[in-house]
Amino acid sequence: MNGLKTAMLLAALTALFMALGYMFGGTGGAMIALLIAAGMNLFTYWNADKLVLRMHNAREVDAASAPDFYGLVADLTRRGNLPMPKVYVVDDPSPNAFATGRNPENAAVAATTGLLNMLTRDEVAGVMAHELGHVRNRDTLVMTMVATIAGAVSMIANFGLFFGGHGEDRPNPLVALLAVFMAPFAAMIVQMAISRTREYGADRAGAEISGNPRALASALAKIAGPAQHRPSEAAMRNPAAAQLYIVPTSVSEMFSTHPATDKRIAALQAMAGTGASGTPPQPVRRSALDPHRR
């Protein structure tokens, strides 16, 4: 059901993009918009991971350069019966993490130094299990495609206001002005609907992979506030990147791409209470990871 809902919302986002093309360029504009959307999605399919990692200036680590962190991800990957992803660290004090890649065979997971320094080992495991949950659910490609099209909707709305049509073909200025403000807002609503659905699914998958939903709940409680008050540098440069993170960087819940953190924590605690993760909850061990260990 979640897959069908996501497909329908993605189709709605593409239709909105085509509608803007039609408004500013008629039938030809709609077809051009469709071709652009298809081209962007094809490009994103092959290059999503490279774009996201470059945006964050992420550095790849391995068993030699970051043995604790890399080993933790490797253990979780085996538990989740997933291919080993590439592992990255982002030098950023904002505590957050994300996953990217077109499929589980070509996936990458990353955590910021802020997150690795703030959390215990079990909490980091909960966070990275959540990101592997995105990989397992094949969310990474979908969310990058959504961010790409949503960004293009805003771009074409602003471009069309000033350059769309000539003479009688030019749209009514009031209608065009309305489109400039409403189209990006509508795209944002669709983007939020897709992202919120995927976050709940990744929380559940992460709890199943780690076997410790309480550790993920504890991590969310710790990093939600700092991530909002000190957004990542990449999110400040490109707000569309915020939907990739485990916690939102927007203070407003209404306009966040994520469900309310307290609701996610409550759901995880309920899982821990019912044993829904598949294994008994484990105590949180007080040992942090060193992201700079060489």
What is the topological layout?
Layout: H1 2-55, E1 59-61, H2 67-79, E2 86-90, E3 97-101, E4 107-112, H3 113-118, H4 121-136, H5 139-163, H6 173-210, H7 213-229, H8 233-237, H9 261-274
Parallel strand pairs: 2-4
Antiparallel strand pairs: 1-2, 3-4
Helix pairs in contact: 1-5, 1-6, 2-4, 4-6, 4-7, 5-6, 7-9
Could you characterize what this model shows?
By secondary structure, the chain is an alpha+beta fold. The chain contains nine helices and four strands. It has helices at residues 2-55, 67-79, 113-118, 121-136, 139-163, 173-210, 213-229, 233-237, 261-274; strands spanning 59-61, 86-90, 97-101, 107-112. Strands 1-2-4-3 form a four-stranded mixed sheet, sandwiched between helices. Strand 3 and strand 4 (107-112) form a beta hairpin. Helix 2 (67-79) packs across helix 4. The longest helix has 54 residues, at 2-55.
Number of strands: 4
Structural class: alpha+beta
Mean pLDDT: 78
Strand adjacency order, main sheet: 1-2-4-3
Number of DSSP helices? 9
C-alpha Rg, in Å? 20 Å
- Helix residue percentage: 55-70%
Q: Largest sheet, described in full?
A: 4 strands, mixed
First-last Cα distance: 45 Å
Report low-confidence residues grouped into runs of 5 or more: 163-167, 251-255, 280-287
Instruction: Give the H and E element order.
Output: HEHEEEHHHHHHH
Shape descriptor? globular
Give the amount of beta strand, in percent: 5-15%
